[in-house]
Amino acid sequence: MIRCDCHMHTEFSTDSEAPVRDMVEAALAGGLTEICITDHYDKDYPPVPDVEGTAFLFDPEDYFPALAEVREEYAGRIAVRTGIEIGLQPHLGGFYSDFVPKYPFDFVIGSVHLMNGKDPYYGEVFEGRTDREVYGEMFRLTLENLEKVQDFDVLGHIDYVVRYGRKRAEEYSYDEFADEIDAVLKKVLQMGKGIELNTGGFKYGLGFCNPHPDIIRRYRELGGEIMTVGADAHCPEHVAYDFDKAEEILKDCGFRYYTVFEKRKPFFRKL
After folding, report:
1. How many CB atoms neighbour CB 178 within 10 A?
2. Could you read off the pLDDT of 3-21 as tens digits, one per residue?
3. What are phi and psi for residue 35, nearest 5 degrees?
4. Average pLDDT of the chain?
5. Whole-angstrom distance, CA of residue 121 vs CA of residue 257
6. What's the rounded Cα separation, in Å, for the pair 252 and 167?
7. Domains identified in the chain and CATH numbers
8. Predicted confidence (pLDDT) per residue in 144-159, tens digit
9. Tell me: the pLDDT tens digits for 186-222?
10. How far apart are CA 51 and CA 131, in angstroms?
11. Partners of 229 in the beta sheet?
12. CA 84/CA 107 separation, integer angstroms
């Protein structure tokens, strides 16, 4: 059984209003023994119409004391770890190499949310293009990001872009993009990093997790071992979302364990 949710957001993320304690209580209610709070830090995220001011940044000087207080409060009941989800962009390699080591993060997710400065969430990247064209470009940009940014532990929701395609998964499969996806996975392994199984795809109605199970299976075939599991929850109701499905997928793909991080080091838990 998966008892750790390694990807969740709280009121420290622009797109969440959830108090940290509410997320912890939801985790306890769901039978979890460990969680990692991974709030968004997307340096140079562009201005967007539904957010006033600068989006997806938080002040670590506020973040760490707040999470430390909660960790102490719940000690002995659930392990609350402090993580971050950084937004990868090729020009930010130097910034993150300075920023990340400054703070005692337990876990760092590196995620690609932007394509040439635009988030697929808002749809603009799909204008005048097929889903297939956009998806292929996103995988190529992901590889470019991996060549420039080093300071993370796990690559987040590899096929995030499919959540927002016009036809979503109709023009998407591992086989369709095998060359691009394999290049990403091989680079992850070369870097000594891992990937995550993100159950947000079920929440968004895709019918599969991110990345698709075929990608998880291929990662395992290539020798991948580091595999965290997270629901990408932004509210308490979504903590550990569809974790029963996640366990089945991991076992079907050849995994007998999942990974958690503490002080940036991986530890393996039996499924």
Report:
1. 13
2. 999 999 999 999 999 999 9
3. -145, 160
4. 96
5. 32
6. 27
7. 4-270 (3.20.20.140)
8. 999 999 999 999 999 9
9. 999 999 999 999 999 999 899 999 999 999 999 999 9
10. 26
11. 197
12. 7
